[in-house]
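pipeline/complex-builder :: batch 7 item 3
reading input block
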Amino acid sequence: MKQAEPCPHAAAVDRSVNETVSEEELTALANHLDECPTCRKSAMGNAQNESLLQALHSLKSIETQTSVDISVSMERLNDLFNNYEIIKEIGRGGMGIVYEARQLELDRNVALKVLPLMYSRARPDAVSQFRREAALAARLKHSNIIAIHDFGQIEGTLYYAMELVQGRSLRNILKEIEDTDPVDAVFGDIVTKSDASKPGDSAGVEPRRRRWPRSGSRTRLTRRYFCKVAEWTAQVAEALDYAHKNGVIHRDIKPSNLLVTADGRIMIADFGLACPVDEDDTLIQSIMGTCRYMSPEQVDPAQGPIDHRVDVYALGATMYELLAFESMFPVEDEKVLSQVLNQDPPSPHSIVPEVPLELETICLKAIAKKREARYDTAEAFANDLKRWLLNLPILAQRPSLSRRIVKFAQRRKLPVVAGATIVALVVASGLLFAGYRNWQKRAVEEQHEAWSHRVQQRLYDAQSDFNNGRLHHALAKIDATASAYPNEVEVQIVRAVTLHRLDRRKDAIDYLFGVLAKRPDRWPAHLLLAGIYNELGKNKREADQHADLAREFMPQPSAKTYYLQALCQTDAERAVDLLNKSLELDRTNAGALLTRCQRLFELKRYDAMLIDAERVVALKPRWAVSHGQLGRALRWLGRAEEAVYALNRAIELDPQRPQWWTDRSGARIYLRRSSQAIADANEAINLDSRFAFAYVLKGLSRANDGDVKGGLQDLDRAIRLNPDCAQAYIGRGTVLTRTGQWSQALADFDKAEKLDPGQLCLCDYSRACIHDHRGRCYLALGNNEQAIEELTRSIELPSPEWIDSHWARGVAAFRRFRFKDAISDFSRTLEKKPTLEFARLYRASSYEILGDYPLALRDYEWFETRTSTQLDAGYVRLFEYCLLRRIGRENAVFKSRTADKDWTNCLFDFLFGTVTQKQLIVDAVTDEQRADAYYFSGMLALLENRNPDAKTALSKCVALNTDTLVHDLARVRLRDLENPGN
Amino acid sequence: MFHPREFPQTRPSLLAAVQKTKGHLTWREFFDRYAPAVYRVARLRGIAPNDADDIVQEVMISIIARITDFHYDRDRGRFRDWVRRIAENKIINLARRGRRPVSMPDAALEDYVLDENSLESLWEKEWQLQDLRYCVDQVAVEISPRQLQAFRMYVFEGVSAEETGRQLEMKVGYVYVIRNQVLNLIRERMRKLKNQEKAP
């Protein structure tokens, strides 16, 4: 029968084995079990309980009792202390116990805090710190500081005795606030009970879950409460200021360390006794709890040393809780640390609308992440609070949203300057006070503005690095940008494109897949993948697939889609086309304009680039990068003077960016303002001591300034810093041509070309310069053909003309006996530089050789009207005389033989027959003079039709192999002698 | 989930200490949870009570001294393993200093150094026991003194249910029910503890 009819309580019994049941049910079950043996049996023996019971039995038998204890017993303490009698324990934390004790000598009661023995053994360093700080703290006498009477160590046990204060800590008060309400908690002894429990007050209904002030009556949160908060905070701040002026920092201000006495005074406890691990309740809370009031510089030592402003911060954080009824960072785990460093707490006003804005302003100033932004002293903090209490205007300014943007930017490791100008702008325009809504909207816009400026700035930087041959720097910058803005589509594209341009296609593909893993709808990523696969030529299917996906995800064509497509383009022409489309639809996209600038630059369409740059400047006058682009366009157009102005502005807006300084330095080199160029390069080096390009510019300017040796040192340094910097080799090559180290110079130029075959890093002007220099090297090394080739390239580049190339090419042509070519080059040179006297002399000689005597004479005569600076006028007359004599007109012109220089006079004497050839050769000192002597001997012999003598003399002149006109002319005359047909 | 790379500039010690001691342990609780196991293992490995006390103290001092330096490293395992390693070092050191365990007067030091597996199971068993003890202690304060008394008599002291009921003036059925209820609470606690451990 028992089996047939299961007990109706069986289920309940079973449940009680596995679940927790209510007290009433338990009693009912117990009654039933007494009567029902079946159920009793099933309650008694339950398999599930067996193993647990067994474990419990073994637990019973094991020996775990150690005789070690972390705290010292009261009896033992009484043995230890002669001068204190322990009365009772009044508080206990994990690391210390506070007793009420009687100080026998002085017959007064004190609070005696005893740190466990183990603690002092574990941290001997902490002990010395404890002693040092306690000694300082014991000297503090202030009505708001709990006095330390005594401290010391007895048999390894650290203790200190302090004033016994009856009161509640702010921590307790905040807890009460949570359970009841602020006014009750703070003025509990003043507000009557009947006041506190008004009808409808839900305090009694669910006291545990309720968080004031989300429910309940808010009306009671009056100014009176906030005045109390201000008063307390001011009192604490004044006490802190007193301590700071006495050289003591508290380091651990927090609600549980601030006691409110029965008479309403607030007292700071534990001054100077903050231990690395505090005696706060729990291990985790001692870390977390302290963290909540820890300033960023305490959490992260990298933010700077700790000073008195940590107390200002911690007091601010405490005040925050009194205003918002919530801690700044209410999370319970390690997130607190990152929040302390990186996150601004919500404004108390947004949590508790009654919080007076000015009081909040004061509080927010105290808890600024940057200590420079906090109150300088606790006194200033106190004073501002007192101003508020007296209804005076406070000194703290609302942290404007724009300033928050700066903070936002800083935390993302972005430069501040642009933000600073935004602040200036906002403050100046007075818009700050135009109303909260407006303010908020503006802030969002500004934030976006600041953000997009940062992105553009970084993209520009990377681009210029790329163009400066710092390919890997470019990638590093893009990488940094990508980690700062990992989800920014522009940054993602540019990173992939950069990888691609560096021929790291595999990495580009991996990266793009990474992007797609997160956002499969990022069509530009598909587009890029399609492009890369197409280029690799292997995965046609893959390429098509991604092209399809790109089409699928791409929204309707808009300014934005064209812009993004343009970013994806490696081909500059096509990119410009797309950007044209984008800008047709939206003329105000600064990013697109800047990108087009960049692309036009690559295409060397500097005029168009200039127009875009000017437009960006109009659009974004506060972006340093706009002015930077403008400066670049101008400089590449050869308008260096204007470029300097544009770059001045860029530097003004963002002086921390080495890029602007080097750009301006480059422009100033162009303008031959060497000392200014050096100063700019130095500034760039100051900002980035590893900036190879800055050293290049410095080296070049120093060389221009006459310090060739120093210049070469700088250039060597640049090469050491970045052996891949093509420009450094170019610079060194240039300087080496000046010192006549032709082969080395050529080697440097070759190296540069190898590093940067597309000459991406150079403006046309520089390219022309390189070809010019190479041409000169070849010329000097006697390779005239090569020289002509290089110089022709230099001349043909569409840059502002590198006029000296014509001159050099003329010489090369002259040496190749191509006198007509030479004459045209010399003429071109003289058009631009009529004062280049050597060119004129060479041209005259060329005309003479070609038999065009009138033109030759005209050139020679040109010198007569001039007091020459480069050439001795008399020297030219030597040639003129030879010509005139040859055509039989010497006496007509040469009335007097005047010359400025002895050597020239000597030559005249020789030509007039007063000095013999032998004497002349003896008088010649240098090879050049000897060459002159032999040349004019030869000429005289020619004029006198002594051809064999002429041949001998001219051969001797050529053999001297000097880099002179007479050498070149001697070669021509010799050739004419040998081949009379010419 | 915490990842060290997220806050490169933060004191790792602080993070790590937080990381490993999740849950709210007071120093005393901390001591209570770790000291007995250390003591037990020391004793099980034949160390005299006085020396085991020394070891406990030294281990706790080491931990307090180093908790702020404790460098969290995922591969280095749980906090307990850290405690275990410190304790093992102390035990071995003690043996090295010549104070051989009493139960193994002739054992060579090599024999004394247990292999990792048996060492691990030894410690594991102890940790489990300590967890259980910790849970029982916690439950003990949750239930009424009368219930505690009943449970202690019936389960720990082996007094029969009838006798327990008689002495405490409660129905026998109530004794059973109480036993089951308390066992439940203990089981629940154990489960919670396990989850806490698992949590990163």
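note: Residues 1-46 of chain A form one domain.
queue -> next item
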